[in-house]
Amino acid sequence: QRLISAGLQSTYSNMEAALDLVRRMPPSNIQENLTGLVDMAPDLTEELLSRVDQPLQIAFDEVANKDFLLCDYNRDGDSYRSPWSNRYFPEIDDGAAPSDDIRALEVEANGVFDAYRDQYYEGGVSSVYLWDTDAGFAGCFLIKKGDGDSKRGLLDNGFWDAIHVVEVIPEADEVNALYSLTSTVMLHLGTKTKQLGGFSLGGNLTRQVESSLPISEGHIVNIGTMIEDMENKLRNTLDQVYFGKTQDVVKALRVPTDGTVSADSKEGKSLQASLISEMLKKQLNKK
User: CB within 8 A of 39, min separation 6: which ones?
Assistant: First the structure.
């Protein structure tokens, strides 16, 4: 650890080095790795906890009788605000809360996003938190789908965490608003069978986008459209980068068990060369 720290300090700051390490760690171990980094660099604790996305945790709203997700955006001290009842658990006095107008928008957003989660994810938990800003308002749209929520039962363990943070600033003409969206997806999959053995795949992606859209369409519609488009792009990227590359590696390493010869193996390439040589000889003999 000292060698890694010393080497990284020579090229960039400790904070950049820590974030660089976190990006290369499996999301399933992020909490353990984050604890190790905090032990190594205690002075970075507050900034690391605020800048590193961790797997979402689930809590239960006893008043609304519904699950909700925990994050920094609904935390006040050691308590977390539920978007369903607008109460903190554990209960506290004078906890931070949105204004009446933003709270009404938050209630509407939670209903719409809950339907979106059910349609696209077929399970899981969603939560939306909104808060006032000096220039407008901001929000955090969260979805967590764990292995226990799967209707197909194909995974031993895994999760999909989607974190969308949006800032909305009305423009001077009061007709349009600028929407700034930062989306992060954390993915972990794991399974183990007698036929295939153990398999684990994990990673995370973060993307940003800005768009000026007419307020007349409604903030929920505008934000929802941006999130839907972003999630489709993130899914496609994950499919190409993680699943596509993994499939390429498996194909390159796999040894067929049915007696056939892989075209990428040494024997396969030798066989290809022999066949090409024989075909060339036959063509020369015909001439």
Answer: none
